[in-house]
Write a structure and sequence with these properties.
- There is one protein chain.
- The chain is an alpha+beta fold.
- Helix content is 57%, strand content 19%.
- A 4-stranded antiparallel β-sheet has the order 2-3-1-4, with helices on both faces.
């Protein structure tokens, strides 16, 4: 519990938005670089005692220990801002190089849309972490469907 451990344990489930579009539009090298950027930003912003790892293709999991929800939320928002800034810079440069080879123009139509995330505090009742991850996966699916629906409405 948060009181006994000097803070709680939180799982953060992250899913990069539009990863397929990055790979399809700019190539797998840019996609791989965007994954590296997430890993670097997670490692640079969470505590050294926290666990950050790739959970799936474009999904990551953070296990943040001895913390509280506000700290986790502000950290993940900082990671997202830095991720978008760095990915925009990287893809803009890659795009610029590509467009300069193909045409005389050098503008980038890409704008990073970050990642979706779900945060769950682990309680004393959470004995089955697979169940926690399953619940978080269900929440993520709803979140991603809402993101897609909003994107469709704005077209």
């Amino acid at each position: 519990s948060e009181d006994r451990c000097g803070g709680g344990i939180y799982f953060v489930y992250i899913d990069i938005n539009h990863m397929m579009a990055i790979n399809d539009s700019w190539g797998h090298k840019c996609g791989d670089r965007s994954l590296e950027i997430v890993v670097n930003e997670l490692g640079n912003n969470f505590q050294s005692t926290d666990l950050c790892f790739r959970y799936g293709g474009d999904e990551f999991l953070v296990i943040a220990k001895h913390t509280n929800k506000n700290t986790v939320l502000s950290t993940i928002e900082k990671v997202q801002a830095r991720y978008c800034e760095r990915v925009d810079d990287h893809i803009s440069e890659a795009c610029k190089q590509y467009l300069e080879r193909e045409t005389s123009s050098a503008s980038s139509p890409y704008h990073c849309e970050g990642f979706a995330y779900v945060i769950s505090r682990i309680t004393d009742e959470d004995n089955d972490y697979d169940d926690v991850l399953r619940r978080m996966g269900d929440e993520m699916e709803v979140l991603k469907n809402n993101i897609r629906a909003q994107k469709m409405k704005s077209r």
